[in-house]
Amino acid sequence: MSNNSHLFKSYGVKPAAHSFTDPQISPPGTTEPAPLDAKIQERNQELVNEYADALYDASAQEILEWAHDNAPGKLAVTLSMENTVLAELASKYLPDSDFLFLDTGYHFPETIDVADQVDQRYPQPLIRAKPLLGVPQQDDRYGMSLYSKDPAACCRMRKVEPLATYMQPYSGWITGLRRADSPVRANTPALDIDQNGRLKISPLVTWSLEETQEYITDHDLIIHPLTLAGYPSIGCAPCTAPVAEGEDPRSGRWAQFTKTECGLHT
């Protein structure tokens, strides 16, 4: 191929800038949130109306036993791999559930290693929900390091939309939300319904970070090594920073932005 760079210098002609797609436009092939049978949606709402208040301050065991006995279909246990408390509890109280891990392509290597250990340790299948685009494809379409320019769009394409796609077989999901995590989560219900009509069940909602760590120690659970190195809350590597002692555990997430949530729970 001939080198025409002299043309740009001699005549002031500049090569055309690469035109990137607006990050508000999801890539072709992105699916709408998985539909849920109308009768199951109706039953889920009835369950929330009847039991949400009673379960608000219930123990993790009580909440999971309730889910096992009442959920009108299969449940997904969503795991961030920051810790494996949910995996341990679900192995005892929800043996028919599936484990679901949002494999964003940006995780710390240590997070992927924890996921691999979970896959080996527990009998439930570990489903790795991946975005439609790999990181190189996203960079090519939307520009390098979208997370640094529009983290909300990056989270939408790499977390929110994949979760919506992979939730199709399930009537509800188990989350690791805790009220102590941040002021935004202070009033999180133990039992709720998401925007697509699925049950959203949070058995750890009353736990403190200290209680979580105590459970990990007492049950000899898999430990994410970064939790011992100043990372009490762990997400994607580019958007997670260590936190000083005494600071909000989630203050290391999107530290350079006003953003505090990825969009899965808002």
TrEMBL record:
<feature type="binding site">
    <location>
        <position position="239"/>
    </location>
    <ligand>
        <name>[4Fe-4S] cluster</name>
    </ligand>
</feature>
<dbReference type="GO" id="GO:0019379">
    <property type="term" value="P:sulfate assimilation, phosphoadenylyl sulfate reduction by phosphoadenylyl-sulfate reductase (thioredoxin)"/>
</dbReference>
<dbReference type="InterPro" id="IPR002500">
    <property type="entry name" value="PAPS_reduct_dom"/>
</dbReference>
<dbReference type="GO" id="GO:0043866">
    <property type="term" value="F:adenylyl-sulfate reductase (thioredoxin) activity"/>
</dbReference>
<feature type="binding site">
    <location>
        <position position="236"/>
    </location>
    <ligand>
        <name>[4Fe-4S] cluster</name>
    </ligand>
</feature>
<dbReference type="GO" id="GO:0070814">
    <property type="term" value="P:hydrogen sulfide biosynthetic process"/>
</dbReference>
<keyword id="KW-0408">Iron</keyword>
<dbReference type="GO" id="GO:0004604">
    <property type="term" value="F:phosphoadenylyl-sulfate reductase (thioredoxin) activity"/>
</dbReference>
<dbReference type="GO" id="GO:0051539">
    <property type="term" value="F:4 iron, 4 sulfur cluster binding"/>
</dbReference>
<feature type="binding site">
    <location>
        <position position="154"/>
    </location>
    <ligand>
        <name>[4Fe-4S] cluster</name>
    </ligand>
</feature>
<comment type="function">
    <text>Catalyzes the formation of sulfite from adenosine 5'-phosphosulfate (APS) using thioredoxin as an electron donor.</text>
</comment>
<feature type="binding site">
    <location>
        <position position="155"/>
    </location>
    <ligand>
        <name>[4Fe-4S] cluster</name>
    </ligand>
</feature>
<keyword id="KW-0479">Metal-binding</keyword>
<comment type="pathway">
    <text>Sulfur metabolism; hydrogen sulfide biosynthesis; sulfite from sulfate.</text>
</comment>
<keyword id="KW-0411">Iron-sulfur</keyword>
<keyword id="KW-0963">Cytoplasm</keyword>
<feature type="domain" description="Phosphoadenosine phosphosulphate reductase">
    <location>
        <begin position="79"/>
        <end position="242"/>
    </location>
</feature>
<dbReference type="GO" id="GO:0005737">
    <property type="term" value="C:cytoplasm"/>
</dbReference>
<keyword id="KW-0560">Oxidoreductase</keyword>
<protein>
    <recommendedName>
        <fullName>Adenosine 5'-phosphosulfate reductase</fullName>
        <ecNumber>1.8.4.10</ecNumber>
    </recommendedName>
</protein>
<dbReference type="InterPro" id="IPR014729">
    <property type="entry name" value="Rossmann-like_a/b/a_fold"/>
</dbReference>
<dbReference type="Pfam" id="PF01507">
    <property type="entry name" value="PAPS_reduct"/>
</dbReference>
<feature type="active site" description="Nucleophile; cysteine thiosulfonate intermediate">
    <location>
        <position position="262"/>
    </location>
</feature>
<dbReference type="InterPro" id="IPR004511">
    <property type="entry name" value="PAPS/APS_Rdtase"/>
</dbReference>
<comment type="similarity">
    <text>Belongs to the PAPS reductase family. CysH subfamily.</text>
</comment>
<dbReference type="GO" id="GO:0046872">
    <property type="term" value="F:metal ion binding"/>
</dbReference>
